[in-house]
């Protein structure tokens, strides 16, 4: 187990020592999720078109004690805690946790959901772990290094240069904006659209199996932070449509529309 670290850890030179414990924690949360996934489970709604299941809260209960022990001075913003009104004051260094990103995919039982644990340090996604428990694939990134781990082992990953023709554009399975997507595609000769759920879209760009993820529609910071960190570590970026880096610590932790891609 990594030793607890001080609130100044967000300004440390490396975040890599935290990864082994966080990866184990994501897998532990994934096992809890898969226990629920194998059952007939109830679905409730926090708001219009915003489902939640027992797996969300149970997975979050696995993750939060670990983060509090590892970094007791760093606040944690977690989706289900936030839904209950428990949102800490944050500065430029804080955790963002989505215990089950892609609840709609979980409910549909298509396997495309993830556990997301991300650290924002000095306002930037500095460390991320994304685990897809139904696929048993994990992505992690920090300090300019990123990995994918699956049944074939652990491999270093990097973004690819988007091809001039035939770029792969990743679109959400559950949140569609057809007109705006088509306008984006019109600027990419021969582009191919592929659908993916949850944070898998960021991770596919990070591993070089996708090129662009244009997002039109609402997301929260806990939806994006972990996979954004993986993408940054793999040589990518997430920018708003006025070409500014996607920022964190915004009011209500709401994101504007954005584009994820390899750095030009």
Account of the 3D structure:
With 264 residues, this protein is α+β, with helices and mostly antiparallel strands. The chain has two domains: 7-156, Fructose-1,6-Bisphosphatase, Chain A, domain 1 (2-Layer Sandwich), CATH 3.30.540.10; 168-262, D-Maltodextrin-Binding Protein, domain 2 (3-Layer(aba) Sandwich), CATH 3.40.190. It contains seven helices and 16 strands. A seven-stranded mixed beta sheet has the order 3-4-5-6-7-8-9, with helices on both faces. Strand 1 and strand 2 (50-52) form a beta hairpin. The longest helix has 19 residues, at 19-37. The radius of gyration is 17 Å and the shape is globular. The protein starts with 18 loop residues before the first helix and ends with a strand. Mean pLDDT is 90; it is low at 1-12. It is an enzyme of class 3 (hydrolase). It catalyses: adenosine 3',5'-bisphosphate + H2O = AMP + phosphate. Keywords: Cell inner membrane, Cell membrane, Hydrolase, Magnesium, Membrane, Metal-binding. Converts adenosine-3',5'-bisphosphate (PAP) to AMP. InterPro entries: CysQ, CysQ/Inositol_MonoPase, Inositol_monoP_metal-BS, Inositol_monophosphatase-like, Inositol_monophosphatase_CS.
């Amino acid at each position: 187990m990594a030793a607890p670290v001080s609130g100044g850890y967000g300004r440390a030179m490396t975040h890599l020592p935290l990864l082994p414990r966080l990866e184990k924690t994501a897998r532990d949360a994934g096992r809890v999720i898969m226990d629920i996934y194998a059952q007939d489970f109830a679905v409730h709604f926090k708001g219009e078109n915003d489902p939640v299941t027992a797996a969300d809260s149970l997975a979050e209960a696995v993750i939060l004690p670990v983060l509090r022990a590892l970094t007791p001075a760093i606040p944690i913003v977690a989706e289900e805690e936030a839904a209950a009104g428990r949102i800490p004051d944050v500065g430029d260094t804080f955790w963002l946790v989505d215990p089950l990103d892609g609840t709609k995919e979980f409910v549909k039982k298509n396997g495309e959901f993830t556990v997301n644990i991300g650290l924002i340090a000095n306002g930037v996604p500095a460390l991320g772990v994304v685990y897809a428990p139904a696929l048993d694939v994990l992505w992690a990134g920090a300090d300019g290094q990123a990995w994918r781990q699956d049944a074939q082992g652990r491999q270093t990953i990097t973004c690819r240069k988007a091809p001039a023709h035939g770029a792969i554009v990743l679109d959400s399975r559950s949140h569609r904006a057809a007109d705006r997507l088509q306008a984006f595609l019109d600027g990419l000769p021969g582009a191919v659209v592929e659908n993916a759920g949850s944070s898998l879209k960021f991770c596919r760009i990070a591993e070089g199996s996708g090129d662009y993820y244009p997002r039109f529609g609402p997301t929260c910071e806990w939806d994006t932070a972990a996979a954004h960190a993986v993408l940054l570590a793999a040589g990518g970026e997430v920018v708003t449509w006025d070409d500014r880096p996607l920022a964190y610590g915004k009011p209500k932790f709401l994101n504007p529309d954005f584009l994820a891609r390899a750095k030009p």
